[in-house]
Amino acid sequence: ITSFISPFSKDRENARKIHETAGLPFFEVFVDAPLNICESRDVKGLYKKARAGEIKGFTGIDSEYEKPEMPELVLKTNVSSVSDCIQQIVELLQEQSIVPPSAIKDVLELFVSENKVEQSWAEANKLPSVKITKLDLQWVQVLSEGWATPLKGFMREKEYLQVLHFGILLDDGVINLSIPIVLPVSSEDKKRLEGCNAFTLEYNGRRVAVLKNPEFFEHRKEERCARVWGTTCAKHPHVKVSEHRICSFIFAVVI
After folding, report:
1. What is the C-alpha to C-alpha distance for residues 27 and 41, in angstroms, rounded to an integer?
2. Within the chain, what is the greatest distance between any pair of CA atoms?
């Protein structure tokens, strides 16, 4: 999705032809805002300068704007809110099979709600814990803030294999995701935690998340390294880290 100042029809048609020649879909979106609305939103004062003659060739003042005749979508920004306009664009792309249906769903944040924080802390302090690295903590943040939606935590094996081999998640439409988000643990921790329905993640002595319904599965490090980084060379920095990590489990809830 790109935004251009494109007042002339020939420029827009040229952009459409370039896409068509390349076999790519092109959707013209007309952001239809009356001139007085554009001027009221001009925080830089450019319209004022144009009316004063300080700027020449300014669209809408002394340069014509050629209104699109058949755009795929018209957004009336003097009527619709920013959120409504975004929704209309997403729905257009969904109808044209450019984005999956899940793209219009809510972002899945995994934070504990404010009214349950105290209760969650009390429960977390009674659970066994696993110490995690700074990198693991960063993945907890990615998950908790919803950046990896629709994931509800670290990947189960099915999700892990989909991403590893196809670069997508398939269970909720087609979601592009090329990096496995897993939490490796040692064989000792796996043995200690098997049978637990929940445990916490601990970083620098502080419990930062609760994991529920864990699923352990084998970390086939050669397969992962080859698929993600295109090499199994032990000198590669990420491969070197992976050599020491052997299994994974899922479902993080930040507390």
Report:
1. 25
2. 77
Strand partners, 206: 203
**By the 8 A CB rule, do 93 and 102 touch?**
no
Encoded tokens for 182: 């897993």
Look up 6 and say whether it is catalytic. yes
Q: 224: how many CB neighbours lie within 10 A of its CB?
A: 20
255-to-17, 112, 189 alpha-carbon distances in Å:
52, 6, 21
State how far the Cα of 27 lies from the Cα of 89, in Å rounded to an integer. Answer: 10
How confident is the model over 156-202, as pLDDT tens digits? 999 999 999 999 998 877 888 888 999 988 888 988 998 899 999 99
Count Cα neighbours of 178 within 13 Å in the Cβ-side half-sphere: 4
Distance CA 69, CA 252 (A): 50
C-alpha–C-alpha distance, residues 209 and 254, integer Å? 4
**Inter-residue contact 250 to 148 (CB < 8 Å):** no
Task: Choose, from 6, 80, 102, 120, the residue flagged as catalytic.
Answer: 6
Q: What is the DSSP letter of 80?
A: S
